[in-house]
Amino acid sequence: MKWVRSLPFVQSASLHGGELVVSYPFDFSRHPQEERIFSPTPDEQIFKQLARTYADSHATMSNNDTERCGASFYRTRGIINGALWYSFAGGMSDFNYLHTNCFEITVELGCDKFPSEVELYPEWKRNKESLLSFLESVHRGVKGVVRDKDGNGIKGATVSVRGIRKDVTTGKVKLRIGQHLFKAKVGALSREGPGWYLDGRPFSNTRKPGVNVVSE
Ligand SMILES: [Zn+2]
């Protein structure tokens, strides 16, 4: 928790076993009576896209066969909102989303929770493209550095995107705000304090009260 809070992580994946599906936040449904209820984050589109990226590059995850572990995820081709599957409190992807910049998905690698040693190499092969594609997807969107008027990076600045009720905060190193902006297409970055501006190729014409952003 300290680690992910101290560094501006963009994405992460946690590898599990026992099912064949990628689940994404929220894992916890706020509905007091419902255990299985679709609980999207403000970044639903991006989470869905990240989950799709993983499942579609996997050898079998997005196949539409019905011979799967217990639950059937063939209808959604191997992805699901966590709380719609089953709601639970205190999950790491919810924590990461709510308290840091990090977008975490949970990858259920297969029906066998404890595969034998001989299964490890085939398992790696089934997931290699997915893992690489997931890593590559970190380069989507817009990146930038929040600087003061002397050009020094500012730590702890809040960056908001119009239309998405979830801010990100700059870290010590380069801030990646790509995930939010990729879907926002055109948004506005707020300024926190006088004289701050965003420096990065995709950012253009500064207009009050914010900086206009045009993404790919
Ligand atoms: Zn799991």
Automatic annotation (TrEMBL):
InterPro entries: CarboxyPept-like_regulatory (IPR008969), CARBOXYPEPT_ZN_2 (IPR057247), Peptidase_M14 (IPR000834), Peptidase_M14_domain (IPR050753). It holds the Pfam family Peptidase_M14. One of its GO terms (cellular component) is extracellular space. GO terms for biological process: peptide metabolic process; protein processing. Signal peptide: none annotated. It comes from the Eukaryota. GO terms for molecular function: metallocarboxypeptidase activity; zinc ion binding. The keyword Glycoprotein applies. The active site is at E108 (proton donor/acceptor). Keywords: Carboxypeptidase, Glycoprotein, Hydrolase, Metal-binding, Metalloprotease, Protease, Zinc. Its cofactor is Zn(2+). Residues 1-138 form the Peptidase M14 domain. The keyword RNA-binding does not apply. Gene3D superfamilies: Carboxypeptidase-like, regulatory domain, Zn peptidases. Belongs to the peptidase M14 family. This is Carboxypeptidase Z.
